[in-house]
Amino acid sequence: MLHIDDVSFRYRGAETAALDGIALDIPAGGVYGLLGPNGAGKTTLISILAGLQSASSGQITLNGRPLAAARAADPRAIALVPQDYAFYPMLTVTENLRFFGGVLGLSKAELRTQIDAAVAFARLEQVVGKPAEQLSGGLRRRLNLAIGLLGRPQLLLLDEPTVGVDPQSRHFLLDSIAGLPATGTTVIYTSHYMEEVEAICERVAIVDHGKVLAEGALEALLRCDESVVELELNAELPPDLASRHEAVGEGAMKYRLKLTSAADLPRLLDNLATAGCAVQQLKVGRENLEHLFMRLTKRSLRD
């Protein structure tokens, strides 16, 4: 669907490029995770895809057509839902949807149909007459998403769509976003929450310093060549086992251990049982996304 070939971009006066030869193939019909630390180039790439910036070099095609030509042929093909609230706080939910639908050039019949669909999708029925400034954080995020869907885009760019929402609203948004490919909308999803990306993205790209560090199917990226065990126990890991397996604490009673071979696992489990440590959860031979991210970027996601 979207082909990004050797795309570079440098801001005026900057010593280094924000994007340095980025190349990605994003297939239709899924949720694609785009990850990177602050300053990695994610926002710049999203801005170029949304038409807010132009690449310095390289080529981007959408369904085989140059991006500019594809956008000219169908201005609604790509929609951006930014991290900041992109609506007028003094207008009601319905007034905001009607205004942005008008900006898209929807006919009266289309506008009515699409507003109804967007309200139903985001479950905003109970607040359509409320000014946006009176909505909770979760409802504001849902209004942001509803506005982005008015034009039934082929490609939806979501930049941190769950920032500042409560857990219930986050689950609703994630479930809703995960269902978008079934309606014909492909999603590029950026987030600082690793668990969100693991939950809804089939493919992921990790970028830093304007370059792609890793890209591919999430399951393949998280598969470990080395023997890695993630454990959750009902008691503290004994110090001798922690030292032997180079344990790293991952939270209360949660540990990440290394095995020299697969044959070490039964021995480890026997040693844990002897020490009175019951295993609550066990994962073998698989990283989580945060571990992969930290290993590739050598820094915290929130730096």
Itemize the secondary structure elements and their pairings.
Elements: E1 2-9, E2 19-26, E3 31-35, H1 42-49, E4 57-62, E5 65-66, H2 67-73, E6 78-81, H3 93-103, H4 108-122, H5 137-148, E7 155-159, H6 167-178, E8 186-190, H7 194-200, E9 203-208, E10 211-217, H8 218-222, E11 227-233, H9 239-244, E12 248-251, E13 254-259, H10 264-274, E14 279-284, H11 289-297
Parallel strand pairs: 3-8, 3-9, 6-7, 7-8
Antiparallel strand pairs: 1-2, 1-4, 4-5, 9-10, 11-13, 11-14, 12-13
Protein name: ABC transporter ATP-binding protein
Domain ABC transporter: 2-234
GO molecular function, one term: ATP binding
Notable traits:
2 domains, globular, 4-stranded antiparallel beta sheet, Rossmann fold, 14 strands, Alpha-Beta Plaits, 6-stranded mixed beta sheet
Describe this structure in words.
The two termini are 32 Å apart. The protein is globular and about 70 Å long. The protein is built from 11 helices and 14 strands. The protein has 2 domains: 2-221, Rossmann fold, CATH 3.40.50.300; 224-286, Alpha-Beta Plaits (2-Layer Sandwich). The longest helix has 15 residues, at 108-122. The chain is an alpha/beta fold and 303 residues long. Helix 3 (93-103) crosses helix 4 (108-122) and helix 4 packs antiparallel against helix 5. The model has no long low-confidence stretch (mean pLDDT 90). A 6-stranded mixed β-sheet has the order 6-7-8-3-9-10, sandwiched between helices. Strands 2-1-4-5 form a 4-stranded antiparallel β-sheet. It has a 4-stranded antiparallel β-sheet with strand order 12-13-11-14, with helices on one face. One of its GO terms (molecular function) is ATP binding. This is ABC transporter ATP-binding protein. Keywords: ATP-binding, Cell membrane, Membrane, Nucleotide-binding. Residues 2-234 form the ABC transporter domain.
